[in-house]
């Protein structure tokens, strides 16, 4: 069974070859590959407890597997489930599980491990970022290889959600140790992790299909600075860099030794606004901030033009998308009037907390300059990724503004969570989202999705900036890299040397 999702198609001068061990390894062994990553996973390697997309970039489909698999074109196909059936009321899913599957510690994969994984993900103590989804599921074991999921709500996107890293199937005996010693059913296992530098996965000999993975060893190198990313590619230290900093891409486009892959994503880059804090709890102030920002200038500054402006928390290419960019257009004079209506005496001083990705740091420069023109003075606080996760995304929500890309396609439900990091609360949105989750009629559901997008835009729930493209730069011989990026994943088993 396939559930398809439409996905959009969409300054370093040079470096001498290095004699580093990474370069020597990459050049001499074609059963090894070195990938670059901008961010190191934090706080660990369990995607069912940590929110960072960097965890999934390493573990999803490599160490951990899911019932379904999201492919590079956005389609959904079976993985740990051989097939599934959906009841007429769209609330009951019956999954028929693959037989003969083992976890990397030798334990058997079965319906009990699925039930344990989903009950744990939706449990009271869960820190899973999709906890609400799993809390709505009743997981029932029929037999060793059949499991039934009964959803309290209608969610046509459930097969897609069950292919994301938050739905990874974990082994009950080892689950609590997955942060540092992950145990999954995937074709790769953790070999070594040098914190702050690199992480190595090696092919797992016990995988059910020994010919599945062509690369025996994969090294992830963590390189945040775009110039250093480019230098690592040019020197041979890195073979491929998915989601590389956009600013360095042009220097590789005419270099015959490299390939540049440009594809669309379903992500949303936003200026997050903490509605828990005054005066950001006033919709007029949030609208003023949006009116002060020229989205096109922001896309140029943050992503070197690799992105399309958005007006709400929803990406073009998803079911029910509507263009809402006209609801809060660029209008600095209107921004000044809105601030005055809200009783704001300028200069209004705000802080903006920025994580390490280049789009955030570069975009921050644009925001500071544009908000200054309407009387808002922004003080920038650059923080490391772990700090952002613990203090901005996690409590105590110590920020006014931030810039971040939300990469999960179907995450509108975060606006129905009053405890979520941006603190948005709206009874109108909650009611509307409940209707979306309980409407079986597809045409009605798409209409409601459009209304939800309009409501978030009208409320200026956040500063909705752009739908990014994430370019990949790789050596010519690297095969199997995704072009489109419906989710953040590196499907290592699909990669090879050509």
Structure description:
The protein has 498 residues and is of the alpha+beta class. The protein folds into 3 domains: 21-43 and 180-264 and 470-497, Periplasmic binding protein-like II (D-Maltodextrin-Binding Protein, domain 2, 3-Layer(aba) Sandwich), CATH 3.40.190; 74-172, Dipeptide-binding Protein, domain 1; 268-468, Roll (Dipeptide-binding Protein, domain 3). The protein is built from 13 helices and 21 strands. The chain has helices at residues 21-28, 53-59, 111-121, 131-135, 158-161, 226-235, 283-291, 295-303, 332-341, 358-372, 385-393, 427-437, 442-458; strands at residues 32-37, 68-70, 76-78, 81-86, 92-97, 137-143, 146-151, 188-194, 198-203, 217-222, 240-241, 258-261, 268-273, 307-309, 348-354, 376-382, 401-406, 463-468, 472-475, 478-479, 496-497. A 6-stranded mixed sheet has the order 14-18-13-17-15-16. Strands 1-10-9-8 form a 4-stranded mixed sheet, with helices on one face. Strands 4-5-7-6 form a 4-stranded antiparallel sheet. Helix 10 (358-372) links the parallel strand 15 and strand 16 (376-382). Helix 8 runs antiparallel to helix 10. The chain is globular. The model is unreliable at 1-21 and 23-28 (pLDDT under 50).
Count of runs of 4 or more consecutive helical residues:
13
Gross geometry:
globular
Strand proportion, as a percent range, falls in 15-25%
Distance between the termini: 31 Å
Please describe the topology of this protein.
Elements: H1 21-28, E1 32-37, H2 53-59, E2 68-70, E3 76-78, E4 81-86, E5 92-97, H3 111-121, H4 131-135, E6 137-143, E7 146-151, H5 158-161, E8 188-194, E9 198-203, E10 217-222, H6 226-235, E11 240-241, E12 258-261, E13 268-273, H7 283-291, H8 295-303, E14 307-309, H9 332-341, E15 348-354, H10 358-372, E16 376-382, H11 385-393, E17 401-406, H12 427-437, H13 442-458, E18 463-468, E19 472-475, E20 478-479, E21 496-497
Parallel strand pairs: 1-10, 15-16, 15-17
Antiparallel strand pairs: 2-3, 4-5, 5-7, 6-7, 8-9, 9-10, 11-19, 12-19, 13-17, 13-18, 14-18, 20-21
